[in-house]
Write a structure and sequence with these properties.
The chain is mostly helical. Helices cover about 75% and strands about 0% of the residues. The longest helix is centred in the middle third of the chain and has 39 residues. It is rod-shaped and about 65 Å long.
């Protein structure tokens, strides 16, 4: 599983803080158990937000890679001196 990027982590953290503050302000809870439940719910929302962002970015990345691989005009438009990924000939014979 890929690791989340910095913007994804920041979005999840902001979601946790904003939802915790909003839930605590709206509910008016003062008991330790009620506050713990609301904070746990806020952490779950932040985790969900980060997971959704990771899924969306992976789908975008997979779609872009598939388009570039199947579109011959994009492959032909590579700049001069661009390297093609793959095994290097000087390392092919070494074990």
């Amino acid at each position: 599983m890929p690791r989340p990027t910095l913007p994804q982590i920041c979005t999840g953290t902001f979601t946790v803080v904003a939802s915790a503050v909003a839930l605590l302000a709206v509910s008016g809870s003062t008991g330790v158990f009620e506050v713990a439940v609301l904070v746990a719910f806020a952490v779950a929302l932040g985790t969900l937000a980060t997971a959704l962002l990771m899924t969306l970015s992976a789908q975008r990345r997979d779609g872009r890679d598939a388009t570039a691989a199947t579109d011959p005009t994009r492959a032909a438009a590579a700049p001069e001196g661009a390297t093609v990924p793959g095994p290097r000939p000087e390392y092919a014979g070494r074990s």
